[in-house]
Amino acid sequence: MRIDVFSTKPYDREFLTRAAEGAEPPLELVFHDARLGPSTAMLANGATAVCAFVNDDLSAPVLDLLADMGIGLVAMRSAGVNNVDLPRARELGLKVARVPAYSPHAVAEHAVALILALNRKIHRAYNRVREGNFALDGLMGFDLHGKTAGVVGTGVIGQVLARILLGFGCKVVASDPYPNEALQAAGVTYLPFEALLGQCDVITLQCPLTPETRHLIDARAVAAMKPGAMLINTSRGAVVDTDAVIAGLKSGQIGALGLDVYEEESDLFFEDLSNRIIPDDHFARLQTFPNVLITGHQGFFTREALTAIARTTVENITSFAGDGTPANRVE
Ligand code: NAI
User: Fold this and answer.
1) Less Cβ crowding at N or C end of the chain, within 10 Å?
2) Whose CA is nearest to atom 12 of ligand 1?
3) Which fold has domain 2-102+303-323?
């Protein structure tokens, strides 16, 4: 059974090849560097399934091309499926699978890494010490202990993050249309989103990108935040309106910003662009703030997560080969 795997890097090839060893039916993995999109979909001609990642284009025209070639499965190597036109996939009878919970610890711990690095100015301290500058001015942080942290979205990742923050001695509040009872029992208080914004010293976004959460952090939300609050986004870039946070950073309303995802990241992330000019002025502006720390969508990037992503992806493909339904089907 042939599967064309798009947007692959050496680490994807390594982990997927290992996970596919001994698979039944045997899998022929055809790896492409290229991103899946209208001009590359034809590469998958002859395949039974395609395997794609967060910045691949699975809009209706691309799904149409895949269905025309007889492809029956889109196996996402991600938890989020916001880049797949699910209604169109349903119409075409194309099955979509995802990796629901490969390692919530990977992403939650990365969110904590951003919080701690921004708070204690590790990104600046690292450079100073390397230059023999041991002055502390400008590096003052705050104790996380006793501060109020807000987790927006307490799914698999948000729950892990909430518990880590409880461990730091934070007061943890959360917003989610479906409050989690175990978290409430552990001491997390659910609040309406607006109320959460006004109370938190640190706000972290762990919700999926949906039509409802697109630009959840807009100018109104920024204005509703506690002045000087830290905002962390490891969910999807478009949950945050970049213009609104730039304005919030300029006015000081946002005290620090940590991003692992960015609205226009598909033009930038996962590639080495260090010899090129970055044409994105918003991204360039964000980089000028000393209190902004950006990583290039690496929250998922741990050994454990890559192992689990590869294993579940292979399981989704082999179960689809078996009875036509992938194990982790997205309805
Ligand atoms: P999940 O599906 O387990 O949890 C999402 C939670 O968000 C659910 O409890 C849902 O009820 C809640 N939610 C939905 N709309 C909301 C709203 N308007 N306000 C507050 N909460 C809302 O998803 P999981 O596994 O926890 O992942 C969350 C997101 O993190 C993914 O959708 C993905 O976009 C992102 N992600 C980022 C990664 C990275 O490398 N930076 C890696 C993996 C996931």
Assistant:
1) C
2) 153
3) Rossmann fold (3.40.50)
Distance CA 184, CA 120 (A): 29
Q: Quick check: helix, strand or coil at residue 129? A: helix
Q: Is the CB of 162 under 6 A from ligand 1?
A: no
Reply yes or no on whether the pLDDT at 248 is more than 90: yes
Q: Name the residue ranges covered by the structural domains of the chain.
A: 2-102+303-323, 104-294
pTM of the entire structure?
Answer: 0.94
Mean pLDDT of the chain: 97
Closest to 160 measured CA to CA, from 134, 141, 188: 188
Calculate the alpha carbon distances from 164 to 179, 188, 244, 322 in Å.
Answer: 18, 12, 29, 40
Annotate 83-115 with DSSP letters as a single string: TB-HHHHHHHT-EEE--S-S-HHHHHHHHHHHH
Is 75 within 8 Å of 49 (Cβ atoms)?
Answer: yes
User: What tokens appear for 206 in the block?
Assistant: 């762990």
Residues 315-328: pLDDT tens digits? 999 999 999 999 99
Average confidence (pLDDT) over 189-214: 97
Contact (Cβ atoms closer than 8 angstroms) between residue 74 and residue 50: yes
What pLDDT digit, counting tens, does each position of 216-244 carry? 999 999 999 999 999 999 999 999 999 99
Classify 104-294 by CATH class: alpha beta
Q: How far is the CA of 196 from the centre of ligand 1 (A)?
A: 17
What's the rounded Cα separation, in Å, for the pair 248 and 232?
A: 14
Q: Which of 207, 212, 312 to mutate to test the pocket of ligand 1 (most atoms within 8 A of CB)?
A: 207
Ligand 1 atom closest to 299 (CA): 40
pLDDT digits (tens, 9 = 90+) for 152-167: 999 999 999 999 999 9
